[in-house]
Specification:
Elements: H1 9-33, E1 42-46, H2 51-66, E2 72-79, H3 89-97, E3 101-105, H4 108-115, H5 123-141, E4 145-147, H6 152-166, E5 175-177, E6 184-186, H7 194-204, H8 220-235, H9 239-246, H10 284-294
Parallel strand pairs: 1-2, 1-4, 2-3, 4-6
Antiparallel strand pairs: 5-6
Length: 301
Amino acid sequence: MNAPEPLRPRKQQYEANKLAKRLRRQVGQAVGDFNMIEAGDRIMVCLSGGKDSYALLDVLMQLREKAPVPFDLIAVNLDQRHPGFPEHVLPEYLTSLGIPFHIAVQDTYATVKRLIPEGKTMCSLCSRLRRGVLYRVAGELGATKIALGHHRDDILETLFLNMFHGGKLKAMPPKLVSDDGKHVVIRPLAYVKEEDLEAYAVEKQFPIIPCDLCGSQATLQRKQVKSMLQDWEKRHPGRIESIFRSIANIRPSHLMDSALYDFAAVEASGEAQADGDKAFDLEENFQDSASQVFMLKPDKA
């Protein structure tokens, strides 16, 4: 079989434009759905040097040009004094963009190394320390919103991590109040797939800074969940999108949290209820997919 013909430049440009438009549309939709940005906002975009935060800043800069309300952006990077951190990369990149930026220097690396035993994951403590510094910097800069680069896959992985290891049904919300109660944190990439961000980073040639400078990698549990989700999507295309839709389509009456639904007050009224037993019936789309699964041979089910 002959090797596939490489994409022609015109085709490449078409795909690149389509990807850029999709990212702008998805970010714009998330911003609108959750009222992330308001007139006069000063948004602190947290820039780590990874693909996600680069894309976040890039898309927000594009949207700002045509936004119906005025808002300002300031890029902020936290230099945690990781050995080998290339200090020049982000200042040079941000200067080339002509966007205001601030580099905060805080040696959290030394603190984490002192408190966490060798061989143990440092990510959790590092994350908490980083949040504290960023909250402080947001106050000093007069930022009204803190924008983080978490995407759709981050949200889904966190959902399953909390279920599997924390016994909680929660993920990363697109908008929340910060731990100190003083800031609003937003995640404009909430609708964006990680694979699109990877492709966008290649297309835009972002100067990526490695995420493993501290010698620590993402926890084994998160890697396992990511692998699980990728396997599901490979075997059952569309499953991930369905799961993602589900966290925005919740029925407290059909879960078990009495703080969200007053089960003690449930009584027969003598009238048909929309959320009664028939809510357990398989919906049409689910029936179709379930039938396909049940028709498979045992070794493929």
